[in-house]
Amino acid sequence: MKPLRVLSIFGTRPEAVKMAPIVQRLAHTAGIDSKVLVTAQHREMLDQVLDLFEIHPDLDLNLMRPDQSLAQLSAQIFTHLDPVLEKMRPDWVLVQGDTTTVLCAALAAFYRRIRVGHIEAGLRTGDKWQPFPEEINRRTAGVVADLHFAPTENSRQNLLREGVPDARIRVTGNPVIDALHQIAEMPAPPEVYHLLQALGIQEGGRRLGLVTAHRRENFGEPIEAICRALARLAAEFAGEVEWIYPVHLNPHIQEPVRRILGSTPHVTLLPPLEYLPLVHLQRRAALVLTDSGGIQEEATALKVPTLVLREVTERPEGVAAGVLKLVGADEERIVREAGRLLRDPAAYEAMASAPNPFGDGHAAERIVQALLEDAA
How many domains is the chain built from? Predict the structure, then answer.
C-alpha cells in the first residue's frame, strides 16, 4: 500500500509553533510520507521556531521581501507554490490558521484538486475587518477545506452554521497547547533569568507585566492609545510592576512605541523575542496585555490573566472561561481593568483560576489519526 503523502505548508512563526507538533507526529507515523514546505512569509521569526523544534523543511520558498504588500506576497506564493504542487501531487496539503500563506496555499491546492486539511478551523469574529486580513483568510480556507480540524466545540458550531458537513469536522483541541507543553519543559534561557533579576522581578518582589501589540487594526491612533495607557500604568504602579514590551519590527509599531515609551521608567522595550524566552516570560508574568491570537491561548493555558487589546476575538472561549477580557485600544479601559487586576486579589484570582478551553496537549495525535482514518 502506498504511503499517504502529506505536505505541510506554513510561513510565519505562529503557524510554525502550532504546526511543529503535527510535523513531528507525521514524521514518526508509519504509512505517511511527510514533507514540509515553508514560504518564509516571516523569515527570522520563522527560523527561530524551526531551530527550536528541530524541523528541517524540504522546500523553502524564501518569499519575504521588505515592505511587500499583501497582494505582492499573494502573487509570489501562487507563482512559486503551484509548480511544486504540480510536481509533488501530495494527497493532502495541511495549512494552519489564517495567514496569507494559508489563504494562498489552500486555494493553490484546490486548483490542483489536492485535498486540504485546515488546522485551527472555524475561528470567527463575524467582522471581516477584525482581524484584518485574517478573518477573510480563514473563511476562504474554510470554504475549500476537505477536513476541518476545529480546536473547540465553539469553532465546530461556527462551521456547522456555515454549512460544513459535520462528518468533515474533527474537534481536536489546539496544537498550540501541544507545543506549549514541550516548551514549558525546556529550561528558561539565561537571558530571561538575567532580565528578571535586573528588573527586580523575583519571587515575592516586583511583578511582571508583559505587553505585545502589533496588529494592523491597531496601527495609528490605537497603538498610541495603548502606549499612553501603558505609560500611565507604569507611573501608577512604579516600584510594584515592571512592564516588558517586545516591540514588533514593523515601523508602524516601532515609531509610536519608541516615541511614547522610549524613556518611560519601569517600561523595558525589547526587540522581538524568540518563542522559548517569550513563553518563559509569560509563565512569570502577573498580567498580559496583548492583541495576539496565539498568546490569548498560551496565557489561558498558563493561567495568566490577560487583557485583549482588541474589540472582538475569534477565541471567545477564553472570554467565556474568564481568563481573557476584551478592552480594545481604549486608554481608559486598559488603565481601569489592569489597575483592578493589580489591586484586587479576588478579581485577579477569579481570572487566574479559570479553566483552559483550548485543549489537552493531544491535538497533533488526533489530527494525524483523522488523516489515517480518512485514507482507510
Answer: 2
To the query of whether residue 98 is one of the catalytic residues in this protein, the response is: yes
Catalytic residue among 25, 118, 120, 283: 120
Residue type, 268: T
Q: What is the average per-residue pLDDT within 115-141?
A: 95
Whole-number Cα distances in Å, 337 to 104, 262, 320, 328, 355: 39, 24, 17, 11, 20
- Residue 238 identity (one-letter amino acid): A
Average pLDDT taken over every residue of the chain: 94
Beta strand 287-290 pairing with 207-212 = parallel
Residue 181 lies in a domain: no
Q: Which position among 13, 15, 124, 134 bears the catalytic label?
A: 134
**What is the pLDDT confidence band of residue 156, given thresholds at 50, 70 and 90?**
very high
Is residue 148 annotated as part of the catalytic site, yes or no?
no
Does the structure show a pLDDT above 90 at 356?
Answer: no
Q: Which residue segment(s) compose the domain that 267 sits in?
A: 188-352
Q: 211 in a domain, yes or no?
A: yes
